[in-house]
Amino acid sequence: MIPELGHFALALACVLALAQAVLPIVGAARRDPRWMGTAAPLAFGQLIAVGVAFGALLWAFAVNDTTVSNVVANSHSAKPLIYKFSGSWGNHEGSMVLWVLILSLCGAAVAAFGRDLPTALKARVIGVLGWVALGFLGFVIFTSNPFDRVWPPPADGRGLNPVLQDPGLAMHPPMLYLGYVGYAVTFAFAVAALLEGRVDAAWGRWVRPWALAAWCFLTLGIALGSWWAYYELGWGGYWFWDPVENSSLLPWLAGTALLHSAIVVEKRDALKIWTVLLALLAFTLSLLGTFLVRSGVLNSVHAFANDPTRGTVILVLLMVYVAGSFALFAWRAPKLAPTGIFAPISREGALVLNNLLLCSIAAVVLAGTLWPMFADILTGAKISVGPPFFNTATAPLAIPLVVAMPIGAMLPWKRGDVWAALQRLWWAAAAALVVGFLFLAALGYPVWPALGMAMAAWLIVGAAADIVDRIALFRRPAQAWQRARGLPRAAWGAALAHAGLGVTIAGIAGMGVATDTLVALKAGESTRLAGYEWRMEGLSDVTGPNFTARRATVTVLQDGQVVTVLTPERRTFQVDRQTTTEAAIHTNAMRDLYAVLGEERDGAGVLRLHHNPLAPWIWFGAVIMALGGGLSLSDRRMRVAAPAPKAATVPA
Amino acid sequence: MTRKKRRLMVLLLAGLGLGTATALTLTAFQDNLVFFLSPSDAMANRPPADRAFRLGGLVESGSIERTTGSDGRPSATFRVTDGPTSISVTYSGVLPDLFREGQGVVTLGRLLPDGSFRATEVLARHDETYMPPEVADALRRAGHWNPAQGAAPPAETWNTAPRQREGRSGG
């Protein structure tokens, strides 16, 4: 009964989406306030309907309703409850329902918080979101209904893929989708602006919080995915340039560019056409990501569902949205004449450079990701494009981007002076040089990791220099605290996010000097790696809630002192008839000790041991970036409804 | 700066960015494209030893030998076959959980002058019934298996199995 209710709610949501797609937009075109007024109630209604559907799905998973084929395929009664829930979005159908749920949540948020939006713009934005929801709800209902019944019901489900039974991955899809879907909102704003033929600073002020929020979630989602790959797949790496990973990186790159160009629209009323184009691109790339993950057109280590019909439908949806929005863009964009004028060397100019480089990186990644598909279609050659390609092709673009970041943040609007900015950054440059040489000469790092360290120092110290300069810490130390309090949170957020990227780059550079070894050890034998002694204590059998495992106990010693005891496992899941490796990791924030158990031969366990310097910094930096974004988002200037801050803060 | 000049500047910059991206992509493609070859392809083409490629096929039955490399690292030697040809592969590392005889496998590495293959990566997915599509294609080209007719025959029969008539795929 409950699954039918869910199915019905989905159908209802689909009808509501149709109404939401038509009524407000027609109303806005006719300037009919009653028609435009339907936008908000429809958006709320849709949220309720999709919410009911998602609740029904969660319920079916929670009670392990084996008459629902989706539950049978992806769940099992012996699973812990959290993985029953995460199993509901850990599969194709359920994840699409989650996608639509987040979309309707965003639509309702626009309706609820957009009281100060011009009525016509608001109606159009919600209308465009209705179009997006309509496409995806139709897709869910007609090609991937999560509430399909099976009869007779099997005794129990087949279980969730064991590598997905993990807290990090339970949170990964919701985060990623919040990011993807956030770009649906900026897309809706862009299309609404094209329909209206008007982009102004107010539009920029509305788009920026959405772009920022989406960016924060996407950053966290990508970091979670990468972290999961690091500790769960047990390969010792954190980024494999896999098509699925790339498909989440692409909207991130476009979204980062959008985030920065929206500032120019808001502050300087320039770069309008470009920003609209970026908003369209960011969502296009999000859809492309969805398409790549789901269609199975690209061979990936963690492809989702390999169903060509679904892929075709998503491809058609993608073409409709992309062709429609870009045709609209070609038709209406000339109306959006820029007004703000700036010199090439200025904050605006630096942001243009940022956009240029980010988009070039995105183009390179896109080419590398899609090329195997085209090569297969055109020549039949089976090609893969691996990490060496992406590393060599993106590094020459990423390095100037990083070098320009602190300088751009220092330049004033309209017209700037690179030399003056550099003078204020001299100690960041000095720090970068010192750090680079220190790692190169004293610690014996190879060139690339040392360069990475130098760039990390440049970013982190550069962000600090920016703040120090703004609060005039050294020039007028007496008022520094007051100025720091008066500094807009957006400035703090930007500095924090830039420094966060520096931390991530430091982590990546640290991984550049990671060492590993492969040994077969019997109980009592030991080996040395990176100054640590790793002693195999023995192998044992353990039983988990829904698996049995072979576990190696490895004691790690340094100078005779026990550092930690690692227990890597090979788990066998009976229900799924699968085996997974469970890496054991010990971290002290400066390095990870990482052990993986392989096969056993003659009583000895084959161990792969890694020493990964600074590895946790990669994800830590991403969290700092997202925090910076969140801080910026809490700036009162972002809350359009908030009254302007008083001219002077009240002194104590 | 006039509007015209500015527009020219922006266009120039965009052109520069796009040009750089294209140039980078093309040069990186030239050196880093990794081709997939079946054992028959690899023996026919003999890629140079400095060129990495992916070799895929079935793990020949009874061919897995666990050895210890000259550097003391535990390694494994096995033969990858597509029917007519098989190549000996040496891999030093942890084999994937589902690596076993008769299973489809894709390895990344280089062909040594003696005709053996040194793998740096062995890919097998976390799924017992999974057949990498390239491997399925290689087997079909070797004329031994039509994927439309069900699962692959056991690997031990490969070198002796009669070639199937090239069936229409789909069906």
Largest interface: A-B, 49 and 44 residues
| Quaternary organization | heterodimer
Termini gap of chain A: 63 Å
**Shape, principal axes of CA atoms of chain A:** globular
Task: Write down the CATH class of the largest domain in chain B.
Answer: Mainly Beta
Low-confidence segments of chain B, ≥5 residues, pLDDT <50?
A: 159-171
Apparent shape of chain B? elongated
Q: Ends of chain B: how far apart?
A: 68 Å
Helix content of chain B: 25-40%
Describe the sheet with the most strands of chain A.
6 strands, antiparallel
Q: What's the CATH superfamily of the largest domain in chain B, by name? A: Nucleic acid-binding proteins
CATH architecture of the largest domain in chain B: Beta Barrel
| Number of domain units of chain B | 2
Count of helix runs of chain B:
3
Q: What class, by secondary structure content of chain B?
A: alpha+beta
* Computed Rg of chain B: 22 Å
Please state the average pLDDT score of chain B. Answer: 75
GO molecular function (chain A): heme binding; heme transmembrane transporter activity; lyase activity
Function (chain A): Required for the biogenesis of c-type cytochromes. Possible subunit of a heme lyase.
Membrane topology (chain A): Multi-pass membrane protein
Keywords (chain A): Cell inner membrane, Cell membrane, Cytochrome c-type biogenesis, Lyase, Membrane, Transmembrane, Transmembrane helix
